[in-house]
Amino acid sequence: MIKALRQTTTVLAFSVVAVLTLAMATCATAGADPVSGGEMPSDDQLIRPLPVVVVHPTNWVPKFPFPFDKTRNLVTDADINAERELCQWYTAQYEILRDQIDRLQFNRIQQNGPGVRIGSGTDSDYSVGPIQQQVDIVTGNIDRSMEFITPRVQAFTISNDYAGDIYLPLFQAHSFYVLWQNLANINDGIKAHQPDWFTGPSVQLLKRAGSEINRSHVCW
Questions:
Q1: How many Cβ atoms are within 10 Å of 158's Cβ, its own excluded?
Q2: CA-based angle 216:87:32, to the nearest 5?
Q3: pLDDT tens digits for 125-177?
Q4: What is the model's pTM?
Q5: Is there a smaller number of Cβ atoms within 10 Å at the N or the C end of the chain?
């Protein structure tokens, strides 16, 4: 089902490859959380296994701003429960997982990283230094996140609009859907040793979806 739902993302991804290649080489660590003293965390501090998210009772309620107040009748209890639980994952692990992915992508293209070359990256080679260990940790974290996210995203009500595009009637459900799509793409790409420029567009789309969720305050 995931492959069938990725078509829109794939078209967008390849249209921005050239721009993102340069952006990731210069800005990949910009979003990392600082440690005490304002310093960026080391690789070992940042790239670490994350715990399984355990659902717990909260006071969270869905939001229905315009125009989602017009589709409120299409929202089911399953939609609401899914977004409630997705918000628990988002607030607990989205930022650190995003930063781990950024750091791994950055480390893969460094001149002192994997492979033997001068002035360019061989970011599909994980055999040198700690790259394979970092890949194992980050993809393991993504695997656990996907296990949590997938059944909840698939519980959303999904229909098609007048143009034939997918439409989710619950506020910000679509952002969670896009985040899920691109997290799967990133995980598949890293495991397949696809180079940074190939996985990069999905990373940017993941960040865009995550930013939309944050700015909407849907989880607070």
A1: 16
A2: 75
A3: 888 789 999 999 999 999 999 999 999 999 999 988 888 888 999 999 999 99
A4: 0.81
A5: N
- Cα–Cα distance between 154 and 161 in angstroms, integer? 18
Phi-psi region of 193 (alpha: psi -120 to 50; beta: other; left: phi over 0): left
* Residue that wins the pLDDT comparison between 116 and 198: 198
- 63 neighbors 80 (Cβ within 8 angstroms): no
* Long-range contacts, stretch 158-162, CB < 8 angstroms, 24+ apart: 159/74
The distance in angstroms from the start CA to the end CA of the chain is: 30
Instruction: Specify burial of residue 51 (Cβ count, 10 A radius: 0-12, 13-18, 19+).
Output: exposed
Residue 197's nearest CA partner among 120, 141, 130 is 120
For residues 208 and 215, give the distance between their C-alpha atoms in angstroms, rounded to a whole number. Answer: 10
User: Could you give the CA distance from residue 46 to residue 42 in angstroms, rounded to a whole number?
Assistant: 6
pLDDT at position 39, please?
83
Question: Tens digits of per-residue pLDDT, 52-99?
Answer: 999 999 999 999 999 999 999 999 999 999 999 999 999 999 999 999
Q: How many residues does the chain have?
A: 220
- Which 8-state DSSP code applies to residue 66? T
